[in-house]
């Protein structure tokens, strides 16, 4: 089935998460180390990671497999405890999951198959008692229209393509109007053409609603297309290696000389082993807004 394009009807809801002043970070991650403990074994997933996400940022966590991107996302969502450091959203410490942080995963089976598309989108609104039935249905239909799926409101997930299922998951997440939308490699299981289309549609949706996005990927190209800011994490355990400003890039810039040279530069930053002294300095330095961090304002 050919997935329909996103509809860009004007928003009836303002940008989500408008509670933090524009110049202060919406999400603060401070010195966060995350571990998995199995019996006597402790696996460190990230080590003393710092970053800030501001209102309406499209902030990307980029790094090689196993560097702790998904674990960081889980910690921000409130599903994984911090071993060191602190995470705060709109000034409140994150201690548990909440409706102000909604995650869209890669897996297509994140939609209960016994619920229709409309019921899927309404479900968190009802379960969290955010809205009554009538209001929840109105809100759900509004966001289904935004992802171009109004005609599929009564369809069941198994009748949809992978891209359409991801659109439903996005509509369901945005309908909650979270302070931050968390996406964990949401397009990684899609074929290349659908993935590109979904990136395009996500950006069009962002142009429309200006939600705050935290997006995990291990694709350098996807990070440059989707993000306005990109945090590079080192191989396991993930430490902050650099922050890149990517405002100037979009789908139109793929293949261009500046895009290619930035992609190559990111590749070097991610995979070239720093000299021992430089690594030591990076480990010692707090990562945000201080000399010593590799900060590339205009790459
Ligand atoms: N449930 C778990 N128990 C023990 N170790 C885990 C568990 N989940 C992840 N890890 C380990 O934590 C580290 C970070 O994993 P994580 O999945 O966060 O990385 P990632 O950067 O998201 O990787 P990928 O891009 O492959 O999804 C890895 O070394 C991984 O083996």
Write the layout of secondary structure elements.
Elements: E1 27-38, E2 41-53, E3 58-62, H1 69-77, E4 84-89, E5 92-93, E6 101-104, H2 117-127, H3 133-146, H4 162-175, E7 180-184, H5 192-209, E8 213-217, H6 220-226, E9 229-233, E10 240-245, H7 257-271, H8 276-284, E11 294-296
Parallel strand pairs: 3-8, 3-9, 6-7, 7-8, 10-11
Antiparallel strand pairs: 1-2, 1-4, 4-5, 9-10
Report the order of strands and helices: EEEHEEEHHHEHEHEEHHE
CATH architecture of the largest domain: 3-Layer(aba) Sandwich
| CATH homologous superfamily designation of the largest domain | P-loop containing nucleotide triphosphate hydrolases
Task: Return Rg in Å.
Answer: 19 Å
Q: How many DSSP E strands?
A: 11
Strand order of the largest sheet: 6-7-8-3-9-10-11
Mean pLDDT comes to: 85
What's the CATH class of the largest domain, please? Answer: Alpha Beta
Query: How many distinct helices?
Result: 8
Report the CATH topology name of the largest domain. Rossmann fold
Low-confidence stretches: 1-20, 278-299
**Shape call:** globular
Helix content percent band: 25-40%
Kindly report how far apart the N and C termini lie: 40 Å
What number of domains? Answer: 2
Bound molecule types:
adenosine-5'-triphosphate
């Amino acid at each position: 089935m050919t997935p329909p394009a996103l509809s860009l009807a004007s928003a009836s809801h303002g940008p989500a998460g408008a509670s933090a002043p524009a110049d202060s970070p919406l999400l603060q991650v401070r010195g966060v180390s995350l571990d998995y403990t199995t019996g006597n074994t402790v696996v460190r997933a990230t080590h003393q990671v710092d970053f800030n996400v501001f209102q309406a940022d499209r902030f990307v966590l980029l790094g090689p497999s196993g560097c702790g991107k998904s674990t960081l996302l889980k910690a921000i969502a409130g599903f994984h405890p911090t071993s060191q450091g602190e995470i705060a959203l709109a000034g409140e410490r994150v201690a548990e999951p909440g409706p102000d942080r909604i995650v869209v995963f890669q897996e297509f089976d994140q939609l209960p198959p016994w619920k229709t598309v409309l019921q899927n989108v309404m479900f968190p609104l009802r379960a969290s008692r955010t809205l009554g039935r009538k209001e929840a249905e109105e809100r759900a239909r509004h966001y289904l229209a935004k992802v171009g799926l109004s005609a599929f409101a009564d369809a069941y997930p198994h009748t949809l393509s992978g891209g359409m299922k991801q659109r439903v998951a996005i509509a369901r997440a945005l309908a909650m109007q979270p302070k931050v939308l968390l996406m964990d490699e949401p397009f990684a299981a899609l074929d290349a053409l659908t993935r590109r289309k979904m990136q395009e549609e996500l950006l069009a949706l962002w142009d429309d609603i200006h939600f705050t996005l935290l997006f995990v990927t291990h694709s350098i190209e996807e990070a440059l297309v989707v993000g306005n800011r990109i945090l590079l994490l080192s191989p396991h355990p993930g430490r902050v290696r650099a922050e890149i400003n990517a405002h100037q890039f979009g789908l139109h810039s793929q293949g261009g000389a500046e895009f290619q040279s930035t992609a190559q530069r990111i590749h070097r930053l991610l995979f070239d082993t720093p000299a021992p002294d430089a690594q030591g300095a990076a480990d010692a330095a707090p990562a945000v807004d201080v000399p010593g961090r590799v900060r590339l304002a205009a790459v």
